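Why do we care about 3D structure at all? Because function follows from shape, and shape follows, mostly, from sequence. That is the central idea of this module. The next example makes it concrete: a single protein chain, its amino acid sequence, and then its structure expressed as tokens.
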Amino acid sequence: MEVRRFTVLPRVPEKLARLSELAHNLWWSWNPDAIILFRRINENLFAALNHNPVKLLGVERQERLNELAADDGFLAHLDRVWDAFETYFKQKSWFDREGAAAPSDMKVAYFSAEFGLHESFPIYSGGLGLLAGDHLKSASDLGLPLVAVGLMYQQGYFRQYLNADGWQQERYPENDFFNMPCRLERRQDGQPVVISVEFPGRTVHAQVWRAGVGRVPLYLLDCNIPPNSPEDRKITAQLYGGDQDMRVRQELILGVGGLRALAALGIEPTVCHMNEGHSAFLALERVASTMEKHKVDFPTARQIVSAGNVFTTHTPVEAGNDMFPAFLVEGYLEPFRARLGLEKDELLGLGRQRPGDAHEPFCMTVLAIRLANHCNGVSKLHGKVSRRMWRNIWPDLPEEDVPISSITNGIHTLSMLSGEMRALYDRYLGADWTEHLDDEKMWAKVETIPDAELWRIHERRRVRLIAFIRSRMQRQLVARGAPAMEVAGAEEILDPDALTIGFARRFATYKRGALLFRDAERLTRILNQAGRPVQLIFAGKAHPKDQGGKELIAQIAHATRRSEFARRVVFIEDYDINVARHLVQGVDVWLNNPRRPLEASGTSGMKVPINGGINLSVLDGWWVEAYASEKENGWAIGAGEEYSDLNYQDEVESRAIYELLEKEVAPLFYDRGADGLPRGWIRWMKRSMATIAPIFNTSRMVAEYFTTSYLPAATRYAELTSGGLAKGKDLAGWLRGVRDKWKDVRVESTETIAANSLAVGGELAVAAAVRLAGLAPNDVTVELYHGGVDAGGNIINASATPMSADGSAGDGVFRFRGTIPCRSSGQHGYAIRVRPNHAHLPRAFEPGLYRWG
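And the structure:
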């Protein structure tokens, strides 16, 4: 049966036409007045439709729309929101003020496998997607010239429910793109923009959808179109679904198809930001396109493209990175092999830490690192972990010199801030506080907020959270077929006045979602202590194939049915942005207890302080940087220890949590003055806001990406491509010569020109003879790598001091001299290191191009 399709659009009265434009730009999702406007149309229906204004306009009764078109109050509200919308686009942005040094044609393309923008747009699974969504929102707020690329999933990530035994079940409802805040991109003739990607024995096509995220356009590729086979139409069916072969296909569409989609739309990015390794194939496409367009060889195109690529890794364990067996990717990469002019092993070597190891799988993270000059982790600790993980790309290089930096994640403050707290900040932080989200002096003004006013708002948010939980629990129980008495009993769960702790995140085993239940008897005493009750709210999904994560959820579900926990512990099904918003706005404490150092960053806990909550967390990810015991801005579980015995670690850290709850958290919360206010607790709330809010936000984060990655990448890309790629060709030719000669570069001799013992404040003079094998002294940097020496004879806390050329010793050998300052006593050591030097060399250490004496 042939089905001919047609689209039915809502019949919105002319006076309300601007509602449709507002609904199709997700700017409304972080503008409270716009949200109130849509809620005003039909509050209950808006909630039932997962707060989707596009769908709301399509299903609301025509009579109601006609009624609103005649409602002067509603029209005045619409005018006010529309004026704010237009002002947002017209006003001078941060980039207008701070981006003067950027090349005029600078355009950043941000690629991610998922984007968590709002619950009405379910193409995300968890933290990676939420971070990507917040990145776009802040890029829009700051006015960065940025576009984004992702995939348009027909089913998105799964929806979760628990069966009668508490075991996670999955369902996959289909997304109706025509009733979501996006539109098909069309050519001038009205036909959809469609791109194609070569697959083994066939070509796969994808059409392009566009979602507005304030000033930022997000382009999403959709393979569910007639030209594709039924199997290939499933490529964009599910986020993180299918087998490894499906993952390769998805990532080719994302990276290669995404870049081609931008080209079809007339967008030529100067910087491509790969958010995690899923999109790394774009680097190969970019190199091949550069070779074809400018008629240059692979080494030249590689240098130019790498200059304009930025890569962010989010995964602190190797197994969590996409790795594919060589036989799986060979066929998919064959078109690239031919276009790039590489042998099979050369191409596969780009995705291997050890390019010559034929048994090593092809890793997308390694591919991204090799083809991006700017690489970073997502917290300071994660940067350190990443340098350790990927150091084999730079064998024999000290870990601290591995060129992977860190930019700590943040959150889009306005997306998760309650309306009451926003109004409070309006009153006490200043009318323009939203323009200065990273200003620590401004956030220090939270100390001026009256304690009573802050506490009343916080209590009101907790009451609303409990009401939301009760309603949600009733729906869960009805769906599960629970007895009427149990459904009615959901009205009594939780206490609106009790200390409320939230734990909500992806249920991976390392996050230890059930750690609190290790000693059930002790937990029972904590939760039910007379006069000081504590209650726990859990939410989160386990990956459908993660049996360990599902077992943790089942363990908590079973605990909620025990009489001693029945009204004190709840698990909320189907965790999404809406549930998260209620939780972070209403809990008193946010609990996070991963196994250090497996939490790359984490962002859920950042959303709590802006709403008055306080963090209780293991010193992992972002909390290592945020926690300040002397400032009393939260609690730390342990002191940053790492354990080899995981059972012992669970025992130690579960006890630490119990101790904190019994002796610090609950006593502080319930210590009330004569006026009923917990003055000590409120002091901690304010200090949490003042120390965390100005730093851990995406306004700071995106500005940091701009200054440390985007601007340098765009500038260097412009330099290498100017004048017919003259500087790019020069660099590639120079590097080719260096690589040819590097095997013969070596340190011939080293001489210490001083006694072995020196006093603090003195200097150790060193001379070295270096064979440069035909290179000139200005082609290399010779440096003294020096520092203290540990018991194993290793240099620690090292510094690198350049040596200066001191003439030729003949036969291609040159003398270099340098001095080491003696700043502290003890045993010290040094080594001589030689590395290439060129004005346009992207980073200090190119794989394989350094030599130790």
